[in-house]
Design brief:
673 residues, mainly beta, 26-stranded antiparallel barrel, three-stranded antiparallel beta sheet, 2 helices
Length: 673
């Protein structure tokens, strides 16, 4: 789906004017007094030379409960909200020290707080706090008891509506120090707690709620060096993840393992060197060790298994190098090489008894990726710039002992790129880029544990030829009007042996415009359309033959998106800034199944529509005092059948609701110098 608008409860203030208008008087009355005459003067020296601090305080009201509207902002329940932002900055002229205190959305669940201090040319430090909510928009009607804990009981209580959510509390500490001889040092530490519940389950049978109680930590330390030609950074980056709940205990069936504790440690060295003003090289080398060695169950639970620790260990080596050069004003050259080796050293161990469908061993998985790129660009005398390049990628991966589908140990892909860019006239610029890519690889290995799947080439393994085109045009037909056009088109052709992907197409068209109506008013608009298609063949087997007969069948899948937007920015008089936005997006998923099957086995289309409208304005009461108003409307509508009508075997049902709501906010914005 196309989206251009991100809702903000208390956006940054608009530019301020100085003269009054009749319409602005309505906002002025809310303050109980007239603007002062001296504010009609222009800015003084103080406002131009001192750092500016801003405090914005007000209130907002949401007309209806809407968890989707406030999924990440916290504006989710009908009622009032405190709107509070602050950005306070001051400088000690005697020492050159800067101090900043910053707060955003302080009255909401998505609050951000930051304090920092910098003694220019010497050292700096900061502390940062972010609260990041996520409110699941789904409405769940369930009898599951124990939600939010690691012990849950199916049908342990009467059916009732449940809303799930999570919250991250992230604190970041940072310190930097300038050292002699071109050296500097930086260190950053992040601690994050994540708590709450999210949709979980045992297959499609029982609804469960994942009890989230995580602690994540990150530490990064960098020593840098800078000279005229050489820049280097060497450092350490480490992570640690802790999950308070290792097992979900359910009253029926086998307990379910949850995300295990793990950690990683990386050392790295990177930098760049300028051989000349026109030639520069860069590189990076890093070595990472990831470990997962938490005990995941006791021997009393499974007496036949004596190993209770995976002993997981993955070593990753990364080497990257590149060089760019401009031998002349017409010619520029570029080359890059990247190598990454992910070596899974986890020991093999038989954790469960072997059967006809598995050998009971874990499956360590290693892979190596090599990428190379070369590019040349030349400017012809007719102001025509030609760019040509070649990209190469090779992926090598482990061969699994037990394979549920056809497998490939290696894939290679080569891409040729060509672009022409030119100023077509004094008012029109354009470019045309073409890409041709060819992917193949080693021989396919049979699916030794699934006869039907042995006929299928997975989409990321299959041989493929890809063609891509991009056209861009920038047109300024008159001084007050500018237009930008982008057209993307792509076509994939797969060469599968029997079943799998056949071909695909994608296109994207967007047009953006900006029209200056007069010196005070500006009109913005855009429209976009995307259309992606994929055709594939597969085979139903006897396992579901009671509903769909055994046969080869086709799926003609399609995703269509369209979006429109219109915006207006302007001034009423010189003191009142006004803006408005209207946006609409529609997304459609089409599943065309060509097979012999009953109507209840067919998949209907899914359509989603999202409309937003917004009006905002700001009136300058005084040079340092303004009134800010926001009015927004949001409407979401979908017929998503993946949840509608679905019923778990324990009786739980889930609804993806259609929603609409209106938000109104009014704030005072105060500036200090």
């Amino acid at each position: 789906m196309n989206h251009r608008h991100t809702w903000q409860a208390s956006p940054a203030p608009l530019a301020r004017g100085a003269r009054r208008s009749l319409l602005a008087g309505a906002a002025l009355l809310a303050l109980g007094g007239p603007a002062l005459a001296e504010d009609e003067e222009g800015p003084d020296i103080k406002t131009l030379t001192k750092p500016e601090s801003t405090i914005s305080v007000g209130g907002g009201y949401l007309s209806d409960d809407n968890r989707r509207f406030g999924q990440y902002s916290g504006l989710r329940k009908k009622g009032g909200y405190l709107l509070l932002d602050a950005d306070i900055l001051w400088r000690d002229d005697a020492t050159g020290a800067w101090t900043r205190v910053f707060g955003r959305n302080v009255g909401l669940d998505s609050r951000e707080l930051r304090g920092e201090y910098e003694l220019q040319g010497n050292w700096s430090a900061f502390i940062d706090y972010n609260q990041i909510p996520r409110y699941d928009p789904l409405t769940i009607n369930t009898g599951l008891a124990g939600i939010g804990t690691a012990t849950q009981t199916l049908n342990g209580t009467a059916l009732r509506d449940v809303m799930l959510d999570t919250r991250r509390d992230r604190t970041t500490l940072g310190f930097g120090k300038q050292l002699p001889a071109g050296f500097d040092f930086q260190v950053r530490y992040i601690s994050e707690d994540k708590n709450g519940s999210r949709v979980f389950g045992r297959g499609t049978a029982d609804f469960l709620a994942d009890p989230i109680d995580y602690r994540s930590e990150q530490l990064e330390a960098i020593l840098g060096y800078t000279s005229d030609k050489l820049q280097l950074q060497a450092g350490y980056y480490g992570t640690a993840f802790k999950n308070k709940n290792s097992v979900l205990d359910v009253n029926t069936g086998v307990d379910i393992a949850l995300a295990p504790d793990n950690e990683s440690h990386q050392i790295f060295l990177g930098g760049g060197y300028s051989f000349s003003p026109t030639t520069r090289a860069n590189f990076k080398a890093a070595y990472t060790r990831g470990k997962q060695n938490e005990t995941f169950y006791t021997t009393a639970t499974r007496p036949s298994v004596t190993n209770t620790n995976l002993g997981g260990e993955v070593d990753t080596t990364l080497i990257q190098a590149g060089i760019s050069s401009r031998p002349s004003s017409q010619l520029s050259l570029l080359a890059n090489l990247r190598y990454e080796d992910r070596d899974d050293k986890t020991p093999l161990y038989q954790y469960i008894d072997a059967s006809s469908s598995r050998d009971g061993f874990n499956t360590p998985f290693s892979r190596t990726t090599t990428q190379a790129k070369a590019e040349a660009s030349y400017l012809l005398p007719i102001d025509l710039r030609l760019t040509g390049g070649v990209d190469y990628e090779r992926r090598k991966r482990s061969v699994l002992a037990i394979r549920q589908a056809s497998w490939r140990a290696e894939n290679d892909e080569t891409t040729l790129r060509f672009e022409v860019r030119r100023s077509l006239s004094e008012t029109l610029n354009g470019s045309l880029a073409l890409h041709w890519a060819d992917r193949d690889g080693s021989d396919f290995l049979d699916a030794n544990n699934n006869t039907a799947a042995d006929l299928v080439d997975p989409i990321h393994f299959a041989d493929r030829k890809r063609e891509k085109l991009r056209l861009t045009l920038d047109w300024v037909p008159i001084e007050t009007l500018s237009l930008q056009l982008i057209v993307d088109a792509a076509r994939d052709k797969y060469h599968t042996r029997n079943l799998g992907p056949e071909d695909g197409r994608a296109q994207y068209i967007s047009l953006d415009g900006n029209y200056q109506l007069n010196e005070n008013w500006q009109l913005l608009g855009w429209i976009s359309n995307d259309d992606s298609k994929l055709n594939q063949t597969t085979r139903s087997n006897s396992a579901n033959g009671t509903l769909v007969p055994v046969q080869n069948w086709e799926a003609r899948m399609r995703n269509k998106g369209e979006a429109y937007g219109l915006g207006l920015r302007g001034k009423i008089g010189s003191a009142f800034d006004l803006g408005a936005d209207l946006q609409y997006a529609k997304d459609t998923n089409v599943y065309q199944l060509n097979a012999v099957m009953p109507p209840e086995a067919l998949l209907p289309d899914i359509g989603t529509k999202h409309t937003t409208a917004r009006l905002f304005g700001q009136y300058a009461v005084k040079k340092n005092l303004s009134v800010r108003m926001d009015l927004g409307y949001d409407r979401f509508n979908t017929n998503d059948w993946t949840w509608a009508g679905w019923r778990f075997t324990d009786g739980t049902t889930v609804v993806n609701p259609n929603t609409s709501s209106t938000f109104f906010g009014l704030s005072l914005v105060y500036r200090m110098w």
